[in-house]
Amino acid sequence: MTALAYDLTETNGYLVSDREGRIVGRVECPMYGTMPDVPDALSVRSGFLSRRRRMVPAETIARVDGTRGTIALRVEREAIRSFL
Fold first, then answer.
1. Which CATH architecture has domain 1-58?
2. The pTM is what?
3. Which of 43, 44, 58, 60 has the most CB atoms around its CB within 10 Å?
4. Of 83, 46, 82, 75, whose CA–CA distance to 59 is shortest?
5. What's the pLDDT tens digit per position in 16-56?
6. What does the mean pLDDT of the chain come to?
């Protein structure tokens, strides 16, 4: 299932991994930009007590597995931008 066919508003708590299978973090919430009802990116928190978050654009998502609650990315972890 591709990310474009999946409802990204229902991915809170999903585990996100990069292209090599390394864990990036958990989805905190969808982020909206160009359209008010379709998320453009996901906010991913990298640790339980960490303040560090990463912005994962929707176009970098390769697969969303709703049964396991995981999201696989097309890019490496270093290519994902961090923000506070």
1. Roll (2.30)
2. 0.84
3. 44
4. 75
5. 999 999 999 999 999 998 888 889 999 999 877 777 889 99
6. 87
DSSP notation for 21-81: S-EEEEEEEEEEEEETTEEEEEEEE-SSS---EEEEEGGGEEEEETTTTEEEESS-GGGSE
Q: What whole-number distance in Å separates Cα of residue 64 and Cα of residue 72?
A: 6
Q: Domain map of the chain by residue range?
A: 1-58
Q: What separation in angstroms does the CA of 24 have from each of 5, 29, 34, 35, 38?
A: 22, 15, 25, 26, 23
d(CA 53, CA 41): 12
C-beta of residue 81 within 8 angstroms of C-beta of residue 43: no
Distance spanning both ends of the chain, measured CA to CA:
30
For range 66-81, the mean pLDDT = 92
